[in-house]
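ligand=6-O-phosphono-beta-D-fructofuranose
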Amino acid sequence: MKKIAVLTSGGDAPGMNAAVRAVTRGALAKGWQPFAVRNGYAGLLAGTIEPFDARNVGGIVQQGGTVLGSARCPEFVEAAGRKKALSNLEKLNIEALVVIGGNGSQTGSASLVREGLPVVGVPSTIDNDLYGTDVSIGADTAINVTLEAIDRLRTTASSHQRAFAVETMGRDCGYIALMAGIAGGAEVIALPEQEIAPAQVAERLRAAHQRGKTHALVEIAEGARCGVRELMHYYEEQGDSIGFDLRVTRLGHVVRGGMPGAADRVLATRLGDAAVECLARGESSVLVGILCGEIASTPLGEVAGRTRPAKAELLELARVMAM
Ligand code: F6P
């Protein structure tokens, strides 16, 4: 009987549990024995690996976070750490691993492949910046959480004729901010992928006020060059000349928490099962993703260390719509 293990790694993302369930049940359906690793790569090193059956993953398809636990694990970057991890898998005769996670996690997967372990990666990151897939597990839910905040803030902004700057997650990639900003009709969007200074944001707010707008929303990604702090500082210096009174809301980890939406549950179920199918075909060392609407695999060697920036050209669309 083939034995495979599954782990979740890096920042948690809504839908990870649906992927764990799909890998577990997909493997059981093939007559294999699945194992679950607790706390990501840290658990591989610590040897916290246990057999899973269909009941272990019952009632988790709708749960946010990851029931397996996740961790960022610096020791895994070292060859000695990976050797320990491989020996823990060998002791249990586990032949292959499914890694559910984002960029750093899939770079870890590629290292394990180089050391001889068959690994299939399942893309999961709210930032949606993984190379090899158009969409990653968790991104859609995170956009909707951000959008709900924008919609709620707009009603109070409108009542008080204020501007709100809303910071969402995205240290290196502004995908969530861009999509939620377009969907929420933000007057200005600031991303890490774009050059934008506080003075430019303020100018756009001033212009919106002069056009007769009674409220304005600035959607800012965490890693944008014009962050909420810079904007507030600029505003304090400029004061009334901007027209609107400005308030700031930082969403932080709220963006990543809570139940996955239907799109993430379905995506995670499809990709988790596709990972098992890859292993069944003997196709390992790939990331399974969605490319042009279809399930597609990309070699982990190509995915490792690469990112996919948000489409900054959509900023122009957002600008036109904010007229
Ligand atoms: O990579 C996903 C992400 O949520 C980023 O958007 C964010 O910048 C980062 O993780 C936060 O990491 P941590 O939870 O370790 O603070």
